[in-house]
């Protein structure tokens, strides 16, 4: 992801669902105007979910996800379906594709006017409360009268749902499909900012961004980029420094600093430098609030005191990256956790999309800030933990807690848990 690209976690995620050979890959190619997905008459050509970041007008930046058919068969097919269903946890809009020419009289007489496989897909999407579009593909294969008859039946059985006639062969219905996607996209004004309620236009935020071996060469890490852009979008000013230059910046800007935001790994050092009267928090804590259930993550910190020898702790990250010798997830956090708890713990890690469905073996989950995850996926993970009775805390909140500065780092936030605030 380059400097000029919208972060994946901030893109609208569109997932294409349907049976094998319904034309899902062809629709992706038609929407994007590129041969992104492999198209074949052989069933099951798409064997894994495939994502492509795109700019699609009038929708804007989005991530399109092509998936295997949900009628896949056999042991391998079952695993493919499981992967596809995981995609729903990060989906903003679903497109359910059906081959209109394959529908039978029995299908048309069913609840939604489609096959049992497609009706199962609709039920899954509705359970997730996702907006969706029904795309009737291969509309050129039937006569106009028959096509309109089937279209009207499906339209009448799915009130309030956009139903679009598509022909990927003749490239018809694609622009109408894009327009419907744009109408279902979240309203940008309804999406909360990261710092909007903390730093007003014209005010100054000081960002402490240590440059260490884990920092990508020539650029800032994602949370830092996103916070800077958020401040600029809100008309605020961002002053960026490393820890050694912080004292001088505080002196030069005395009386004009609204907040200091630091990399969590430098929390203890920065807290010792920044005067108590200046609000202080971290990038990771900002993302805990921006993308997660903030109160649930704060409350999860208390579970650290309940850990016992032999307990398992899961350290989870939303992205995959090359591990450094002082990696925060596999080295630093386990070290700080052991020092604080004094217990012999079993540490397990996961990254990317490999978040376990069964969390029961764990006594605590420590999750990254989720900058690469969508809000929907981050909240899903927190909900999974809560539903299984497993406390969950994020990196920044954990680091602030073990350094005894959690109260200070959340005091400026309205309507947060009072467990540590009072």
DSSP E strands, number: 14
The N- and C-terminal alpha carbons lie at a distance of 41 Å
Strand order of the largest sheet: 2-3-1-4-5-6
- Give the low-pLDDT segments: 36-47
Indicate the overall shape: elongated
Structural class by sheet pairing and helices: alpha/beta
Structure description:
- With 422 residues, the protein is an alpha/beta fold.
- It is 35% helix and 18% strand.
- The protein has 15 helices and 14 strands.
- The strands form 3 sheets. It has a 6-stranded mixed β-sheet, with helices on both faces.
- The longest helix has 14 residues.
- The protein is elongated, with a radius of gyration of 24 Å.
- It starts with 11 loop residues before the first strand and ends in a 12-residue tail after the last helix.
- About 3% of the residues have low confidence.
Keywords:
422 residues, alpha/beta, six-stranded mixed β-sheet, four-stranded parallel β-sheet, 14 strands
The gist of it:
With 422 residues, this protein is of the alpha/beta class.
Question: What secondary-structure arrangement, pairings included, does this model have?
Answer:
Layout: E1 12-18, H1 24-32, E2 50-56, E3 60-66, H2 74-87, E4 93-99, H3 105-108, H4 116-127, E5 132-137, H5 144-157, E6 163-165, H6 174-184, E7 204-208, H7 222-233, E8 237-241, H8 246-252, E9 257-262, H9 267-273, E10 280-282, H10 283-291, H11 294-300, E11 312-317, H12 328-341, E12 346-351, E13 364-367, H13 375-387, E14 392-394, H14 395-402, H15 406-410
Parallel strand pairs: 1-3, 1-4, 4-5, 5-6, 7-8, 7-9, 9-10, 11-12, 11-13, 13-14
Antiparallel strand pairs: 2-3
